[in-house]
Amino acid sequence: MTADLAPLLVLGCWTALVAVGVCAGRAGWELTGAGLGTVWRRLGPWRAGDGDGRLAPPGDGEPAHLAYYWRQMWVDAATAAARGPRTVWRDLADRWLRRTARHLFTGRRPDGRRVDIPVNRFLLAVFVAPGTAAGAALGAVLACAALTAVLTVFALLLGLVWLGWAAAVPALRALERGRRLLRGVRVKCPHPGCYRPVPLALHHCPNCRAEHRALRPGRYGALWHVCGCGHRLPATRLAGGGALTAHCPYCERWLPAAAGTTRVVHAPLIGGTSSGKTMLMTAMTEGLQAWARQGGLSVEYASDDDRRAAGDLAQEVRRTGWAHATTGGQPRALMLLVRRGRRRRLLYLYDPMGESVSEAERVRGEGYLAHADGVVLVADVLAAPEVRRRLSPEDARRVTDARPAAQGPWETYQRLTGELAALTGRRARLPVAAVVTKRDVVERLGSLPVPGARIDDWLTEIGLGALVRALGHDFRSARYWTVSAHAATCAGPLESEQLRAAEPVLWLLAASGLRTGAAVRRTGPKA
Question: DSSP E strands: which ranges in 9-75?
Answer without folding.
Answer: none
